[in-house]
Design a protein that fits this description.
The structure is a homodimer. Chain A has a six-stranded antiparallel beta sheet, sandwiched between helices. A three-stranded antiparallel beta sheet of chain A has the order 1-3-2. Chain A is α+β, with helices and mostly antiparallel strands. Chain A is 46% helix and 20% strand. Chain A is globular. Chain A binds a DNA duplex through residues 2-4, 7-9, 12, 28-30, 33, 39-42, 44-45, 61.
Amino acid sequence: MRETDFVSGFARGLKVIEAFGETRQRLTIAEASKLTGLDRATVRRSLLTLSELGYAVFDGKFFTLTPKILRLGHAYLAATPLPTIIQPHLDQLAERAGQNASASVLDGTEVVYIARASQRRVMSINLTPGSRLPAFCASMGRVLLAALSEGEARSVLERTDLRANTPNTKTDPEELMAEFRRVREQGYAVIDQELEIGLCSIAVPVENDRGQTVAAINIGAPAAYVAASDMAEQFLPLLKETQKALRLVLP
Amino acid sequence: MRETDFVSGFARGLKVIEAFGETRQRLTIAEASKLTGLDRATVRRSLLTLSELGYAVFDGKFFTLTPKILRLGHAYLAATPLPTIIQPHLDQLAERAGQNASASVLDGTEVVYIARASQRRVMSINLTPGSRLPAFCASMGRVLLAALSEGEARSVLERTDLRANTPNTKTDPEELMAEFRRVREQGYAVIDQELEIGLCSIAVPVENDRGQTVAAINIGAPAAYVAASDMAEQFLPLLKETQKALRLVLP
DNA sequence: CCTAATTTGTGCGATATATGAACAAATATC
DNA sequence: GATATTTGTTCATATATCGCACAAATTAGG
């Protein structure tokens, strides 16, 4: 790609939108400038452009994103058949399991939720389509990383900030690589409170008819309700059933 | 705002992202150009920029959005406290009602889903946060439009494509305005298969502690399961309870 | 297999945008 | 209440982008 095939004004604008992540609902020009590392004048022009288009509003001091911004992400969710196909299966899975079920794909070092069926609330985090978690310590992440080649998986780990979320979090790369091999062999991953104390989860890959892993689905349950060692016994048959059903409908 | 405070390259890029709406997962440069009305060279540069940043991939012919694009919309969902605060209440509501519950806000002439709790699948449409429906024929839309001034509500109707989705859809502006008044008085809206045959729903406004309507929540049920005339009796107490709980926690 | 029709890639002049400094206004600090 | 600091805005100019026109490549049709 040539230099001139890159629209830096566009790239800068996207960076500004992402600056509204986390808990930052309202940003001043200076704040956005600091967060993005862009010049104040540039950030101001991007924000004013967003306002002009209705993606943001400006009250004289703060800029706030509007729901119109959801159109951008929704273009992906609506356009990609995966979430639409998976959702009904997920609903059924959650209902039969009596627990939350989710689906996600890998994006770099993170898993991104693309669909979710809530049955009960156990996590402190609010997960919706678009939510992200570090792949190395999430059950779906383990499954998705296990589907990569050894080299690719190792490369992801190298780029990951292997921070322990709980005392249970496995952070040793070699231990994780061994875990991926185990997951690949047994066909599922179980997480025992590595992400959040009190939460266990079990995930299986979602494969298309050519056997390629295109996503992962999981069931999460309170540790007080199901011990990690019982997760497979209790939920694996349901997950396998959903996995099988999806293999038949995915292109 | 001055002319020069508008970054047209950014605006053009956003338009390109939105071109991936509907069922268009893959777009060629020419297709995106037709959909956006932008010059091919411009679209090409925007798409190459998206690819360079990892928001899209190019296989030599088609451009496809990647899950990274979800970060953009998610910046809003994560940053706005509304979805996070409402979600647990919605989960509880859906569980107690045994039906799907959703929350949405108004964006122009459409309602935008910001949270959802699925219990069962009755709609043919797949609704996730970010999904949009025309406000005039959705229960939450009626509630949100009823919260506007008469002039504003009328203005929205004027800008709306009042297309009938089913034989039941009310499309006469005066009839709709009268409906808004009724909704405002009784404090809830019931939709009887105006959006989709076989689907009824009931919605109430979500108000903050100053009495301002900031969102709407609803419960949808199959018409075969609950007649429209029974919706209020069956679900209004639950909705009112959730509404009251939310009023106490919303800023 | 060749021609016509589309689609895609590229060079260039005109136009639009980014930059960084300078200034004014608003906050914060003492 | 005066000074220091941060913040928002403006401006001139160097730089980058836009859209057009043309060439190359691909696809469709006969």
